[in-house]
Amino acid sequence: MKPVLLSLPTVAFVVATRAALAFGVGLLVSGRIPAARRRMVGRALVALGAAATVPAVLALREGRRRVATPSSPLV
Questions:
Q1: Which stretches in the chain have pLDDT values below 50?
Q2: Cα separations (Å) of 31 from 21, 24, 27, 38, 63?
């Protein structure tokens, strides 16, 4: 496992995007909510989670760079 240095808001952002994606997929495969509403909300959450994946990956890559260069200031 490689060490990653992230600020608290960045960690919260990464966790929230993963949760939105997972919850959206869960809604799409669930059967407890009416189908039309479930599909609409599920697709929106999957799209939000997928769209936010790119900034989350970039933040994680930056966190790895911070660990590699310990002289950089924490932002």
A1: none
A2: 18, 13, 8, 8, 39
